[in-house]
Amino acid sequence: MAKRKQSGNSKAGRLRIVAGNWRSRLLDIADVEGLRPTSERIRETLFNWLTPHLHGARCLDLYAGTGALGLEALSRGAASAVFVERDPVAERQLRKNIELLGAENAEIIPSGALEFLRSAAPTPFDIIFLDPPYAGNLLGETCRLLADTHQLADDALIYLEDERSRGEPDLPRTWTVLKDKTAGKVRYMLAKAEKDKQR
Predict the structure, then answer these.
(1) Is 84 exposed, middle or buried (0-12, 13-18, 19+ CB in 10 A)?
(2) Domains of the chain with CATH codes
């Protein structure tokens, strides 16, 4: 998703798909204050972690923003991706990019992430991307809702990204952190949720 930076002028730019069927495709980014994709460096590391699990995976890109994570997953062989984004300008640009790529296995939900989790019918996802705006401090509540609303497939993988200074998020007790790295001011992690131990 996008981060809201506190300094500097925001200007629309372009997103590059790193690898897969759409490798090196450039997509426009909505002209929304502070909107930017997860960096290519982080995406490359993340998808190296996810490679054994991507083929045929059902993905959920909460706080989708530019859609960088969900689109990268589709490019690399995921079966489907649901993008949840409440900002109407970002949502319209994401829709245009999905149409440009011809991604028929992508669905956009114009909603807030927490509202989506509270109201959506259970549709177990294999991989979930959690990259909320840093200022909202939303990771803890989002993780609790995910664990309680039956949106996780057996042994689902959850990617989490936040400000490095905030420290480790408060995760559900059934989740295990598999990977934990930092890049500049960003901390990013991959966790596994063991479905059979939930609730």
Answers:
(1) buried
(2) 14-197 (3.40.50.150)
Per-residue model confidence as pLDDT tens digits over 134-150:
777 889 899 999 988 88
Identity of residue 132: P
pLDDT tens readout for residues 81-108: 999 999 999 999 999 999 999 999 999 9
Residues sharing a CB contact under 8 Å with residue 24, sequence separation 6 or more, in sequence order: 16, 17
| Residue 139 vs residues 21, 153, 158, 175, 194: alpha-carbon distances, Å | 31, 19, 11, 14, 19
- In DSSP notation, 145-163 reads HHHHTT-EEEEEEEEEEEE
Burial per residue of 56-68, b for 16 or more beta-carbon CB atoms within 10 angstroms, e otherwise: ebbbbbbbbbbbb
User: Burial level of 160, CB count in 10 A (0-12/13-18/19+)?
Assistant: buried
State residue 196's pLDDT score: 52
Tell me whether residue 192 is exposed, middle or buried, using C-beta atoms within 10 angstroms of its C-beta: 0 to 12, 13 to 18, 19 or more.
Answer: middle
Give CA–CA dist 134/170, Å, rounded. 15
Q: Which two tokens stand for residue 15?
A: 């997103």
Q: Could you give the CA distance from residue 195 to residue 33 in angstroms, rounded to a whole number?
A: 38
Query: Please, which pLDDT band fits residue 37 given cuts at 50, 70 and 90?
Result: confident
3-class secondary structure, 169 = coil
